[in-house]
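Chapter review: from sequence to fold.
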Amino acid sequence: MKKSRMGSNPLDMQNPIPATSSLEWIQDSRSDDAPAASDTTERSQERLKIDETPVPVQSMQAVVLSGGGATGAFEVGVLKALVKGMSPATDRQPFTFDVITGTSVGAFNATCMVLHDDPEAALDQLEDLWLNRISSHKGRTGNGIFRFRPPAQSLFSPEALMKNPTEILSRLGADSIFLTRDWLQRGLGFFQSSEPIEHRALEMMNLSSYVSIEPLQELLEDAVPLDIVRRARPALKVVTTNWETGEAVVFDKEQLTDDIGHKAIMASTALPGFFPPVDINGHLYCDGVVVMNTPTLPAIRAGADVLHMIYMDPDVKEIPLAKFRNTLDTFDRMLSIQFATNINKDIEQAERINRGLVAMERAQGDESEAGQQTQDFVKTASQIQKRLATSRAPHKKLCIHRYHPRGDLSGILGMLNFKRENIEAYIECGIKEAVEHDCEASGCVLPE
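The token string follows.
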């Protein structure tokens, strides 16, 4: 199976394509076969001629969706405003996209958004799934993403027992067998290990043993037909993490086969420590958020130059410090700072790309001595033209619109709270963010 691999920094790669290049990449592109500074005048003129050849460029729109558990409903709200032409980011015009990428819950949302040729129809179906299949609400037990082992909530619910007692008892039996086997394996490891007893005791604890993602598997099988996904017009990129190597692994829509497609989406949502990793062809995969919370690179590699980046991380300064310090608050703030730092690095990299391209454009028409020096620099980057000939993505300036909640939507535990009233609130928050979108306040990247 062919998969794309990349490092932990979303805009940091070994074999970059021009659209994701920085000025450092331009300098590094002088390979051994690149002409030296002492080239003949004839060859230099030939290179300048190539450099001056205009490259026809057609803008490609992309949506980039991040992780966030239940707060992924915020993405639904932003998409709703964009698709229905309610956002100033699209000049209040209905939005269509050419590329969509997602990690964690964003991978689920992204996949659902390609199920219909009409983005509005896809959006309506996605919103219905969140409100009626994913959320927990009156009339159902649990949510549509995960359940705990054993099914205690159902066992102590007379309504659930009366509705489907056979299924609940069957789950209880299967869970008992699973947990017994898990305890026996861990107990055997405890006595066979030569590690200190404190270390062995910690190894006995595994929260993910008590969590089943069968509800998500059933939801995907019912609502996400993979044959339609593979035939979709937009490019789709599902980001996961190889738990064995620590690499980000991107599954294209063509790779979402009937055998592994749903597994790849489940893997992208499998938060380590809470959800169990997913086995795909003998390798373990987990949540893509581990290495790439906002998958901008796959979108740019697919040729997109206008990106709508939707993520759930708030402005750190808007998160009030806890009156009494505690572990959950510490981890929540730590993750927010980490994700914000990575996103800001992506934005800074995009701005450097744009500044470099502007400088190259200006050098073409500048005949002064300083301009000639800049042209000499441009000539050393002639390898860009060679890569343009074989690259799917043209060398384009990047435009990045950013959408995210200003304050903390829920905290760490809230990511697992799928109550319908919360889901509805997150969707409304997303709509508000897109409708009131302000590029300057949001720190969007707007090319000159």
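Two observations follow directly from the output. The longest helix spans residues 327-364. The first strand starts at residue 4 and ends at 6.
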